[in-house]
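dumping this here so i dont lose it
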């Protein structure tokens, strides 16, 4: 009896030590400073190399390379379809993950997550339900499959929405700097590149998008496509309005500074209207917390002593 107990205790100690080591690594990784400037520079350099290779290589080589990559992805993941791959690529680009391996990793996670969550739900079901039956086991497995199929896409969309909100917060400052650069006589490419460099420390997401747009404006022959890619990466109404304004300025030759100044005034008016809407909605939002959390303690403080005194008088 002593040897099995010693083995069990040593196994528990090893497992606890491994878990502590992994927890320590995760905490150190979370607390380590992130070099956003270097990551942004690597992303822009990667995009620049992709555009250079795409437009300098012969067409037949590009077709063979694309087919080879698609064939390897299909062979590796077994069930990748063109629509699913295109949708995943769009969501990953909106979330800020633009490397070619990101699509493969996401599709692999999306394939594996239903199996993993189904097994986890099936194993954890007896510990959550007392009188477990075969039907409950099957229901837990089906729930795990459903959650695994929906969870990766929902999390990716949530990451993209958070990134869009950060871009939207940094847009007014970027637009003001863009107006200043346009009034100083800089071209659109130079102005976008300068704005991306200036707002990098304060708004890295906005700087990333502007930096990629500057790279694409320098390499793509169709400048409207380069501006349209900015709207695709950040599907926000304000970004779409900015892209339309810049495209019309490029097409008709209207003054860039004047168009951007008008757009900046419209954005300020829209932001003020949103603030007024939130302020007008505040009393209705605060009604439920007041009823649930403020009024009951107030009634207890005001009426409680009188009720206690009345009960003591009746009981005495």
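and the seq i came up w/
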């Amino acid at each position: 009896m002593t040897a099995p107990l010693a083995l069990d205790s040593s196994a528990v100690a090893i497992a606890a030590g491994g878990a502590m080591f992994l927890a320590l690594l995760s905490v150190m990784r979370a607390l380590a400073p992130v070099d956003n400037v270097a990551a942004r520079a690597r992303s822009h350099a990667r995009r620049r190399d992709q555009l250079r290779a795409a437009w300098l290589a012969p067409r037949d080589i590009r077709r063979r390379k694309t087919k080879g990559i698609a064939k390897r992805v299909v062979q590796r993941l077994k069930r990748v379809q063109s629509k699913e791959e295109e949708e995943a690529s769009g969501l990953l680009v909106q979330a800020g993950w633009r490397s070619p391996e990101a699509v493969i990793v996401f599709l692999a996670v999306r394939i594996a997550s239903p199996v993993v969550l189904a097994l986890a739900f099936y194993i954890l079901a007896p510990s959550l339900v007392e009188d477990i039956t075969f039907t409950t086991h099957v229901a837990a497995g089906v729930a795990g499959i459903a959650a695994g199929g929906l969870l990766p896409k929902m999390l990716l969309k949530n990451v993209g929405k958070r990134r869009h909100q950060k871009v939207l917060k940094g847009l007014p400052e970027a637009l003001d700097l863009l107006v200043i650069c346009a009034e100083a006589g800089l071209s659109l490419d130079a102005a976008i590149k300068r704005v991306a460099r200036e707002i990098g420390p304060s708004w890295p997401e906005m700087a990333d998008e502007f930096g990629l747009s500057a790279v694409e404006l320098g390499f793509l022959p169709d400048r409207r496509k380069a501006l349209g890619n900015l709207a695709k990466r950040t599907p926000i109404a304000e970004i779409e309005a900015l892209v339309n304004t810049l495209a019309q300025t490029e097409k008709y030759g209207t003054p860039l500074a004047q168009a951007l100044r008008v757009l900046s005034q419209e954005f300020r008016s829209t932001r003020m209207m949103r603030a007024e809407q939130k302020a007008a909605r505040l009393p209705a939002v605060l009604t439920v917390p007041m009823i649930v959390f403020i009024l009951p303690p107030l009634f207890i403080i005001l009426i409680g002593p009188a009720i206690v005194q009345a009960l003591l008088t009746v009981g005495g």
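The first helix runs from residue 2 to 31.
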